[in-house]
Amino acid sequence: MRHGETPGNIAGLLDTAPPGPGLTARGKEQAAALVDRFRGEPFDRIWTSAHLRAQLTAAPLADDRGLDLTIRPTLGEFSVGDLEGRNDDAAMEVFLEVMHAWLDGRLDPRMPGGEDGHDLMRRMDAAMAEISAAGDDSAFVVSHGGLLRIWASLRCANITRDFALANYLVNTGVIVVTGTPTVGWHCESWDLTPGRREAT
Length: 200
Hints:
Helix content: 40-55%
Radius of gyration: 16 Å
Mean pLDDT: 94
Order of helices and strands: HHEHEHHEHHEE
Number of strands: 5
Largest sheet: 3 strands, parallel
């Protein structure tokens, strides 16, 4: 799941560096709503990135279930490096160019002063391997929209590039995957961006 709404989201800022901002009032409401939204869904463990917004999003659900958060920097958003804190047209053009290359499977391009596609996939693969190796029947992961969308697009055989491009994750949007690193991953469901087209 992508974290709840942040001040950076409202301003359209590229703010990927940890610990990052907290949640807006609306983001706190989104986090609180998770308790009822996922009532009856079994989670053995709740994982989050080291970003404050991910931990604050997961906290109400964890408190309700008496679970501790398992925090992993590997689940953090990809670094935009020199573009950090910007929302101008020039920065967004570079950001989108690199991100679209990654969604195409071309992982060599790098965010200026930040990560390339190999870096982010290596991190997320390691995180998912650890989550899988924990031996739980199900896990709830709070991470970041860009990282989740790129990883799922490249690792789930039933998700196409065009679908991933058309359906970014809104705040607290969820992608459900099944599988393991050995057998591979399958996307069971993907919260569609309002107004976008149906799933692949």
